Description:
The protein is of the alpha/beta class. The chain folds into 3 domains: 18-125 and 191-286, Ribonuclease Z/Hydroxyacylglutathione hydrolase-like (Metallo-beta-lactamase, Chain A, 4-Layer Sandwich), CATH 3.60.15; 129-189, no CATH class; 312-364, Orthogonal Bundle (Arc Repressor Mutant, subunit A), CATH 1.10.10.10. The protein is 32% helix and 22% strand. It contains 10 helices and 16 strands. The protein has helices spanning 70-82, 100-103, 106-113, 129-136, 146-156, 171-180, 257-269, 288-313, 318-325, 333-348, and strands at 2-3, 9-10, 28-31, 34-43, 46-56, 59-63, 90-94, 116-120, 196-198, 203-206, 209-215, 224-228, 233-237, 276-279, 353-357, 360-364. Strands 3-4-5-6-7-8-9 form a 7-stranded mixed beta sheet. The chain has a 5-stranded mixed beta sheet with strand order 10-11-12-13-14, with no helix packed on it. Strands 1-2 form a two-stranded antiparallel sheet. A hairpin with an 8-residue loop joins strand 11 and strand 12 (224-228). Helix 9 (318-325) packs across helix 10 (333-348). The longest helix has 26 residues, at 288-313. The chain is globular and about 65 Å long. The model is unreliable at 1-11 and 127-139 (pLDDT under 50).
Amino acid sequence: MTSTADGHASDAPRPVRQEQEEASTEVAEMAPGLYRFQLPISMPGLGHVNCYALEDADGFTLVDPGLPSIESWEALGHRLAQVGADHSRVHTAVVTHSHPDHFGGVHRLRDDHGTRVLTHEDFRSVWMDSALDDGMDGVELDLADDEDLERVRTLMARPTPWGATRQAPPATELRKWSEMDVTGGSRSWRVPVPSTTVVDGEELVLGGRTWLSLHTPGHTHDHLCLYDPVDGILLSGDHVLPTITPHIGGIGPMDDPLATFFRSLERMKELPGLRQVLPAHGHPFDDVADRVDHIVDHHGERLETIREAGDELGSATVEAYMQRLFKERSWGDMAASETYAHLEHLRIMGRATRDEVAGQALYSTS
């Protein structure tokens, strides 16, 4: 049930956004030798990931080869067959950032076919895997084993920078991850070690095109976009999406993730001759400047909502602000993390103050 503009309940279903659409089985050629494979995923707010296949004389480079699930692996094989190839023809995998719907497929590609993995030099997960890497110290995990599973859940339920404790996924969900894993274990959910890395502004040849690597932190610290200035094509990953705004979390190495994201977005307006944006979710679009302005305005509205909430709440926790910023169906760790990022942005800008009481952060915007 949804609400109408005047606040009354409505039985009309919420419209499906582009990024939520189920994966198409059809392969689309976006430019000569550049194909879009839509791979199935089931994550909050998402129904597919766009994997881009760049063809050259030696085979294919895949950009973001999907989740480490059997369903995704089989779908990838089906899409490759439509362009006269199979998994063995993939010589390179580019990962735009350290989220599993983008890096998950590279483990089996590398293990079975020697595929090299290319990322930005800052590539490393701060979502889940850094804690697991430190806590497990390279030990292989078996999520079918109760002791290993609870050890993972303990590591995932670590304190937040604002003094709360994150909720670990239920044991049943972690087991489901393990069962989905195409390798039959849990390693594929951990970030791979890249074969090679690039820095901002570096040129690289993929699929017979010369691309410019663009470091675009915000959604993650390590996000990488690729720009072909000759044909004006941008592979935007999750940095700029057509109808939704990417999650901007407050946990990680960035001091002010929101300001960092704004700066990365503004760079998109400066790309000369940009004609086509190919996102990791949703459909291609062309007016990147308009889309960037909409995303910035959206966050501006969120900042104003927080400031207005502060007038009523006074000194309050991140969770209290979260409940003003997000609808109840979205309450949880991700919403709290994004709220924290906005509060920290206001604090750094001198428009909010932070106090610590019994280890918990309290913010005031009045």
